[in-house]
What does this fold into?
Amino acid sequence: MIEVKNVSKYFGDKKVLDNISTQFYEGKVNLVIGRSGSGKTVLMKCLIGLLYPEEGDILYSGRNFNLLSDDEKKQLRTEMGMVFQGSALFDSMTIQENVMFPLDMLTDQSFEEKLERVNFCLQRVDLSGSNGLYPAELSGGMKKRAAIARGIACQPQYLFCDEPNSGLDPKTSLLIDQLITEITHDFNMTTIVNTHDLNSVITTGENINFIYEGELAWVGTKDNILISDNELLNDFIYAQPLTQMIRKGL
Amino acid sequence: MKLITRTLEVFGEYILFLGKVFRKPEKGKIFFNKLISEMDMMGVGSLLIVAIVSITMGSVITIQTALQVESNWIPHWTVGFTVRTSVVMELCPTIISLLLVGNLGSRITSEIGSMKVTEQVDALEVMGINSASYLVLPKIISALIVIPLLIIISIFFALFGGYITVLIVQMIPIYDFVDGLTSFFRMYDVYYALTKTFIFAFVMSSVCSFYGYRIEGGALELGKANTQGIVVASFIILVLNLVITQVML
It folds into this structure.
């Protein structure tokens, strides 16, 4: 579990995260939703340690990131997997090398052990046989799946996904959502997904955190998000004509 | 005043960046493989352009020198001597280093910069890997090994260019030219040239890496950083050339 306690983050004088406190649960797909520029990505960068909040604490299974030594931070990072918005696969490496990379850098396993793990991860994301391909040879959906395979290669406790559906068609998005949900449950990870894709919200949102202009405006689940009386949330959810029509139907 | 403050800020960032780069590599074997790959890319990849520029530079300087010393009072071997001294002490170390800033430096900035804008550098950091050390240290070490070797090769190519030119154009007897090339040789000139080259290689690789690594944004910033990296590295090399010359000669 990850606990966020009173976290604030500033860029210059601008407060981009304002006193955020929430929890992300183990074995669940935890969503962070909000409009573009609301602070979702900044929060995620704080969670993975790429940015440091000026105020507040982030606890990973009780371990306060701010109080950890450099070695302990490094150890904690080996427990994290990340799927970036643009996949962030290494262009110069094949898919096998990409997935094997964290194993190469962070473990002392033999090549056979690493290859076995790589093949397992690729098979889990339905990319068996793609070992020798380069990222440039993959479609957007395949890149995302390869990035998920790399993210889970070291058996992380925490999986972070920054807008995993961006740029994908609805059907591929659904497959990515299903995949993230399945691996979260299978490996009992604490998964945090940044998204503003409503399909993802209503299919995968086991714990949803809605951020509005840097503040946590609503917390709930996929079961109660469509019937919430939070106006800011409703403005976000029902912004599109299609969802407005669904609301009228409700 | 603002320019001075900004320059000092950037210099401070550069020093902190170097502090992050010069850390023990995470895995020795992976570092070694990357180093070999970089040396191959820098050395073999630059050999052709270095050879072409050096041969033509040697030819041109030979013709120009021969024209300048066309007098019965000046012995013919002066041409070979002047060409050798110019090539060893100044032309190859400085001109070829500036050429390599444009060639290798822009490749380094583009490579690291594109990894930065596509979040590949963030991906390394999230894995707990020191991205600056992983990406930049092999490039700096490789430049320190390969560029002095390229300069030595360049010197030979430039002298060869001069030799071929004299042989073809026959503005002076070839034995006088060779006599000049081999007369009054000082090993200190080579030390001086290699010292300069070593320092220029460090400046080129570290400054261009720094400009690639500090990119925030997208393709537009990548282009800007590329230009900035080349301009700043070239400027520092020219200033250091002056300082080193004053100190060592």
About this structure: The helical segments of chain B are 2-21, 28-68, 77-117, 120-126, 131-169, 174-182, 187-213, 219-248.
